[in-house]
Design brief:
30% of the residues lie in helices and 18% in strands. The protein has 281 residues and is of the alpha/beta class. The chain folds into two domains: 10-129, Cytidine Deaminase, domain 2; 150-276, 3-Layer(aba) Sandwich (Cytidine Deaminase, domain 2). The strands form two sheets. The chain has a five-stranded mixed beta sheet with strand order 4-3-1-2-5, with helices on both faces. It has a five-stranded mixed beta sheet with strand order 7-6-8-9-10, with helices on both faces. It binds zinc ion.
Length: 281
């Protein structure tokens, strides 16, 4: 065999063919993300993210695969995620925590004529869309209307992690962690608990931010406060950052340090927007 005469890998030909098919159907401004799996299937997500939406086609695809396939998603997300759009910080952070590789295939290649004769390139691949997955109901205890101080907010976070029931949708292996959103005056806006047992994307803060967006369709209000059990990881920090309309006014307070590598050098810590709760004397 001579060097330099190698054919492109079959996967690459299939990826280009899928990219072309998806590009044909994309609406104006829509970004497509897809992942080719063995067995002639590719999963894709496609939409045009709105301002402050804590979701992109890349993150919807990754979290959708975890939501649908549970622990089986582990083998799926080893494959590269391909996106037609510019890779965002949120995409990168998501891939760090819940997938492996991300690559831009932009611009998507022009559609090829069907009968090119190139073996493999026109192999039929079934395209399956990952849409907006419903967020399961969280079995949260009833919440007070407001909290009067940072200490009271952290007490509520601790209380939530103790009292949240482990409902049928929650992975039994999920650690007890929770997150709380208030406005600047302490009015309680949302709460969530960690459901990341088999689904790596369902950290408490991620659930909190996604739920806020689903319920309200807008970014976090000015002066938003996020309280959580642990220092937010890269993915959760990027979600909070993406949804924040008033970055000067944002404050994130966590109860305990997370020494893990995924919680270091996040967009929140890099911008000095988070702090450890120090109990009042
Ligand atoms: Zn996290």
């Amino acid at each position: 065999m001579r060097l330099g005469t190698r054919q492109p890998p079959a996967d690459m030909a299939a990826e280009n063919s899928i990219a072309a098919r998806l590009a044909r159907d994309a609406g104006p401004g829509e970004t497509t993300a897809f992942l080719l799996v063995s067995g002639g299937r590719a999963y894709f997500s496609r939409f045009r993210p709105l301002p402050y939406q804590p979701e992109t086609p890349v993150t919807r695809l990754i979290s959708g695969l975890w939501a649908r396939f549970g622990s089986q998603a582990l083998s799926l997300v080893r494959r590269p995620v391909l996106t037609s759009g510019p890779i965002t910080d949120l995409d990168r952070a998501f891939v760090k925590v819940a997938a492996k590789r991300l690559r831009q295939v932009a611009p998507f290649p022009a559609p090829q004529p069907m009968a090119t004769g190139a073996a493999g390139a026109q192999t039929h691949v079934e395209l399956l869309e990952i849409g907006e997955e419903p967020l399961p109901e969280e079995p949260l205890p009833s919440l007070p209307r407001s909290v009067s101080s940072e200490a009271a907010a952290i007490r509520l976070v601790r209380d939530l992690q103790e009292r949240a029931r482990r409902g049928p949708t929650r992975a039994t292996s999920a650690r007890r962690l929770s997150a709380l959103l208030t406005d600047a005056e302490g009015l309680v806006l949302a709460a969530a608990v960690n459901s990341a047992g088999t689904d790596r994307t369902r950290h408490a803060e991620a659930e909190l931010i996604r739920r806020w967006w689903r319920d309200h369709g807008r970014g976090l209000p000015p002066g938003a406060r996020v309280y959580c059990s642990l220092k937010p990881c890269k993915m959760c920090a990027a979600l909070i950052w993406a949804a924040t309309t008033d970055r000067e006014g944002l404050r994130v307070v966590f109860d305990r340090w997370d020494p893990g590598p995924l919680a270091q050098g996040t967009v929140l810590s890099d911008n000095g927007l988070e702090q450890l709760h120090l109990p009042p004397d």
